[in-house]
Amino acid sequence: MGDAVSTSLDLLQGTLDLLVLKTLSWGPAHGYDVARWIQDVTGDVLRVEEGSLYPALHRLEKRKLLKSSWGLSRNNRRAKYYEITAKGREALASEASTWSSFTKAVTTVMTSADRPGWAK
Amino acid sequence: MTPRLDSRWRRYLAFFGPRPVRDVDDELAFHFQARVDEYIAAGMDADAARDATLERLGDLSRYRGETLAIEQQEQRRRTMSDVIHSIIGDIRFGARQLGRNLPLTIAALLCFALGVGANTSIFSVVNAVLFRPLPFPDSDKLVVVTEGVTKLAADISSISAPDLLDYKETEGRAFQTLALVRRRDATLMINGEAEVIPGAALTPSTFKVLRVTSAVGRVFIDADTASSAPFVVVISDGLWRRRYGADRAMIGKQITFSTGATAEVVGIMPAGFAFPLPGLGIPVADIFFPFRFTPGVLAQRADNFGAVALGRLQNGVSMERAEAALAEIARQMPRRYPESWGKSQSRGGNLLIHVKSMRATAIGESRRPLLVLLGAVGFVLLIACINVASLFVARASARKREIAIRKALGATRGRLTQQFLAEALLLLAAGSALGLIAAHWGTRALVALAPGNFYSSFDVSLDARVLAFTGGVTILTALVFSILPGLRGRPSDAEQALRAERSATANRTRQEGRRVLIVSEVAFALVLTIGAGLMLRSLARVRAVNPGFEPENLVTFFTSLPAAAYTDVDRIKLTEQQIVQRLREIPGVTSASAASGLPMQGDWLIVFTPEGPPQSQLPVATNTLVLPGYFEAMRIPLRAGRLFNDRDTKSSPNAVVINETMARKYYGNGNPIGRQFKWGPRDSPGPLSEIIGVVADVKHTTLDEEPSNVVYHAVFQQDTGVNVSMYRGLSYVVRTRIAPASIAASIRTAVRGVDPKLVVLNIRPMDTIVGQTIETRRFNTLLLGLFAALALSLAATGVYGVLQYSVIQRKREMGIRIAIGATSSNMIGLIVGQAVRLAALGVVIGLVGAFALTRVIRALLFDTDPLDGLTFVASAAVLVLIAVLSSYLPARRALRIDPIIAMRAE
């Protein structure tokens, strides 16, 4: 296990939404699938409290960025599947670009070699 | 939304909509279980897996709470449009499901459309005749006024025309207006051809009574009835279109009658107008004349009852009050007219007056047959619905898996019911729409084909009641069918169905259902078949009734000697004799003669006085004036005495021939030959006649009538006066050895040979005329037979469908049987035997039902017992036979089952 960045419950709600939207942009899935994919892709580095996915999913659905339907899973159990909508894809694109700018800015600050004027 | 609305939506959604708490829990539980399973698969033990999962999931109660809050908030915002969306979704889904099994859908559609169409057609007519008012404004105020004399031995439902003028005194008080109508057919010359047009003479006040007016031109005014006024007529829309090509310039044109007279057309009635009403005793007329109170008419007070009096009641006046007002005048009649009513009172008793609603009179005898037909067609609908039900049930069984899956996915019972209701409504609404279209044509056909145009005087059109009836039937059926699949089965069945396992109990209940379907269809079809069979038997018996003469090979026609050319009475008699002579000379003719009226063509009633003490009731008889040779030509048997011959002329003693019934009733003791007879009441100045012969009874109006008195007078012994008009036109009868059709031309030649200007009308074979008198009976029997045939075919289809499906369902069982050595005859015996057993049960139930129900049609039957054994047995045999035939194809299918495949299929 690599360096686990333990995420607290205060993980920015927006960031979680972004992760969910991106995951679902690959295709419809249920909550467990989303958790597993994030786990697999990040090598379990990003420990998301899996329960918190559900308020996020429901909120996104309320905002019409996702739509849901009930189906039967591979082993015939009742599961709720979420699918990204066109509006959701737009939101994803816009959020991703914001995130990109944000991370660029943070990285710029973190890697800057320029000493500020007030430093001793 | 107000809080109250909110909670109502909540309750509706709770029944029909999703359940948030359960859904969220299911969602979280799924995730939980998936994680646990993953850890266990990786090697952890159950407890450790659970702990790890709980840790991974985080503060579950908080997340659950948050999620629930979001969902419940969302639910509060659900609006009407969501509900509509879900309903539309259900309808689309339903349409897809129906489309998936198109043959089944179409079969159900057709069955239902048939049932609805037939029912709506009949109900439209029933509605029009029995429930709706007549097609005149304010028609509940329309009444018919009839006179009667207490001692009269016959029921006369008309009045003596001149009396109307006296009754008109009540206008403005008890009545708004009174009017008089009398039958008056006319022979028009159209394009050189003579045609008899049904017609009526009306007083101009008739139009005020009915509150109708012409579509083109005008109606009659009082000036038209003056004796010096020019002859005018009003014609019907039908006649105008049929015969005059809807000529726009018709008003003001002259039309010609066969007598050579002409009249000006002053008005054309609108298209929906149908008057008089057949129920009043006068057929629907195409041509109308103004009724003139000529001196001749006025002289026939208290003697000639041939007109029908109509009235429109004053607002707020009841029929009883109007009747009392008229009765007051009636009481004064003997004082006003001592010569006529005064004498009548001393002979026949007081003049009675009766006021009856026009609607009741118009309905006449048709209420019971209509209700019977409605009941019959209701049975057809029941059978059709049972067919549709069995189709639905079969489909529901096939979709059990789908239902179970949807239940597993959280569909509530209400949701499923809504789904199936939408599907059922879709199918049945389509069927109803189809049925309504069919009913449109069906109703028109009924009205057009009904004998005597009986229904055309009623307003038979689609109205709210009919649509409500159809809609109600549809919705009721849909509700019943959608509840069935949705509510069947408890939740645990879902699991079983998912595994495609059929438990023994589930199989048995399905079998029960199928059996009930077959048994009930057979029972209903049997009742209907028995009813139709009884009517058929009755019809056959009526047709077999001896009319008292021989109508086969007998041709009749009518010709009248116009008054203008034939003024001398003796010349009239001579000409008629010449015509008969010429007819006898036609090759192939065995005998010919003529009479003032023939059987089945209406009768002329007279009062008479038999020899002996005064009767308590005034005797009435049908009177016919005949030429010599009449009885021989008609082959009416002579019972005593002799028939008229050439020596019975003006100079020989007055002679009459009477029939058996009169002889028995009024000359009972001993031989009536040689005894006296008087035409007219006891103290009338007419001469006495001697009875010279007694002939067999003859049916005069219909084959199923009771015997009545008949008297025959010789034309040659008649005087001038009113009676000339009775024998100016005679109906001639010609008995031939050759086919009636080929003799028409020879008849025309013979008549024209005597006088080229004479017009020969209505050349018809006598047995056609006899047949027409039972037209209504035949029509009703035909309809009932049609419904029975419909019911039988629907039942056959139903039995076939159910058995076919049953064979498919029981494939495994069949396979086993074949594998263990059942032969093909065993298999066929199994299936057919099953059908026969079920049919037999249905027959028993149907017989019980028939016992109870057939007494309802007793009034419609002639000489047939409602519990006629032969009909019952034959109908039962037919049903069993149909069950056997319907089971044949499914039985063949059972034979083709490959046992190995069948046993593996489950």
Question: Could you describe the 3D structure shown?
Answer:
The complex is a heterodimer of chains A (120) and B (906). With 120 residues, chain A is of the alpha+beta class. Helix content of chain A is 49%, strand content 17%. Chain A has helices at residues 13-24, 31-41, 53-62, 86-111, and strands spanning 5-6, 29-30, 46-47, 66-72, 78-84. In chain A, the strands form 2 sheets. Chain A has a 3-stranded antiparallel β-sheet with strand order 2-5-4. A two-stranded parallel ribbon of chain A has the order 1-3. Chain A is elongated, with a radius of gyration of 17 Å. Chain A starts with a strand and ends in a 9-residue tail after the last helix. Chain B starts with a helix and ends with a helix. In chain B, the strands form 3 sheets. In chain B, strands 1, 2, 3, 4, 5, 6, 7, 8, 9, 10, 11, 12 and 13 form a 13-stranded mixed β-sheet that branches. Chain B has a 6-stranded mixed barrel with strand order 16-17-22-19-21-20. Chain B folds into 4 domains: 7-77, no CATH class; 151-349, no CATH class; 366-543 and 775-904, no CATH class; 562-757, no CATH class. Chain B has 30 helices and 24 strands. In chain B, a hairpin with a 4-residue loop joins strand 9 and strand 10 (262-268). The relative contact order of chain B is 0.10. The A-B interface holds A 9, 30-32, 35, 49-52, 54-55, 58-59, 62, 70-73, 76-80 and B 23-24, 26-28, 30-31, 33-35, 56-60, 62-64, 66-67, 70-71, 74, 405, 408-410, 498.
What attributes does this structure have?
heterodimer, A: 120 residues, alpha+beta, three-stranded antiparallel sheet, two-stranded parallel sheet, 4 helices, disordered N terminus, B: 906 residues, 13-stranded mixed sheet, six-stranded mixed barrel, 30 helices, 24 strands, 15% strand
